[in-house]
Structures are given as structure tokens and as C-alpha cells.
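Quality-control log, excerpt.
Job 1 of 2 completed; input and output follow.
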Amino acid sequence: MTNHELRRKILQMLYTCFTEHPYHRITPNEFTEDLGVTQRVLDFNIVYLEEKGYVELQKPLEGSIFVGARITPKGIDLVEDEKKFSELFPQNR
């Protein structure tokens, strides 16, 4: 899976979660289990998405990069704009 495909899947997971439970955050373990990626690969991609403003990370005082993630309004708008979403994060690259 490419980074673009992984980022797309992360955003889709967060979007689905938000539509069901807006204040629920997805944990790193949920991501790694559902997506089949290592923590290192997840961290790289989730921080990228945070820096772009698409996700919000709940950060611990020390230790891991994050303990929970949720999609931002900017991320929701992106997922709902299928053309732009596919341009930025194509499924097959």
C-alpha cells in the first residue's frame, strides 16, 4: 500500500467514525490492526495528515506520538469532495 492509499484509508476510517460518533477518537492500535501497518508507518502518515489540517491528534504528555485521532472539518470537506479527494489521495498510484 502506498502512502497515498494509506492516507486515504485513514481519512475514510476517521470520516466513518465521525458520522457515527463525532467525539470518538480512533486509537493507534485500532489503526494498525485495521490497516495492517506498523506503528512507524502509521505515525509518519498520521502526522502528515495532521500537518495538512485534515486530522486532529490527541497527544500524550510523553511516549507515543498520539493516543487518539479524529477528523477535522477540513478533512470532512475533503472526503466529501470525491474529485479533490481522489486527486490528492488516489486509490491506485
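Job 2 of 2 completed; input and output follow.
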Amino acid sequence: CSVAAYCGRDCQTADWGKRGAFGGHKGLCPDYRVLGKAQMVPAEGRRLALERLLSKMRLYACPFAVHHAGVQGRGVLLLQSENTLAQLALPAPRDCFGHMVQRSVLLQYLTLTKVDEMLESSNGAFDDLTAPRAIISTVVSSHGDGEMVVLVRLRCGFVAALVTQLVPDLRICMQLATDYKGKEVLQLDLDDM
């Protein structure tokens, strides 16, 4: 793939196939190739990277959001990370140079009032969102019961707002939501899931 770097031929051979850590490079190669040596997610791949990230944590994030929506009312799930989008898009917890990467996200539920307060105090962190208050208000008021609104902010400056389906469905999320009573913030270590 000409992306992964190895200290020598022996290490490269050991990491190929299913013998290597994380299932071997052979199965992960296409995902590393997309990121390239620069370890950047191309513009056309950002939505897919975000959807893959959300699919890893839906069983935790959706019930968390359902619990807080039931207690606080309509709002957004704020997903923040000290990682970049490229680090979160890695198929394994190591970059193309073999360095291990700790990947985690912090989830918090915000009502529209809290979203406004956050946008005002963000020092331009959400400037990439066109008219963020109007978009978020419209999205929050119009999404269905089987959906949640997610606002994403990552260390690299990547910012996004999207509506995604609840998985599992609302009925099951409501049963699982009791696990999040009294938890204002949820940290997920992505490689321990």
C-alpha cells in the first residue's frame, strides 16, 4: 500500500495476514490507504469516517442521549475528542508509522439553551458551521423520535452537525437509558469497546 512504515522486512512480514496485531495489516490496508502517509481524511471521506465512528459507539451513545432527552427535553448529543478525525478513522489504534494512539470520545447532552451558551463561549470553534444556532434549532425541533442530533467537535478543528438513527430502537434505548441516570458526561475509550 506504500502507506505503512516498518522498521524492517521481518516486522513487515510479521504484521501481514492474520498473524499481526489487530488482525494484521492485510485486512486493514484499504483503510490505511485512504488516510495516506499524511494521515488525513479526504473531504469526500469525512461523512463515512464519522458514520463509522458513530456505529462503534451507538449502543452507549443512543441510550445516553435518550435518557437525557427524557429528563431535560430536546437537545443535541455533543461528541468531543482530543483525537483528530484521522486518528478516530484509523482501523486499529496505531498510525501508519506504528505508533499507538489512545482514542476516546467525551459525550455530553446539551439542551438548546446550553448549545447557545456553548456557541457564545466557544471562541469561534464552531465558525465552520453556517449559522449554527439556526441549523441546530431547526434540526432539533424537526427530528423524529427514532433519531438523535449529534454535534461533533474534534481536536483537528473538524466540526459537524448531523441527525442519525437511534440504534438500538427507541424502546430498547429507553430500557438501557436507566444505566445513565446521574451521569452528565460519558467517556468512551473506543479501543476497549
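Post-run check on job 2. The mean pLDDT is 87.
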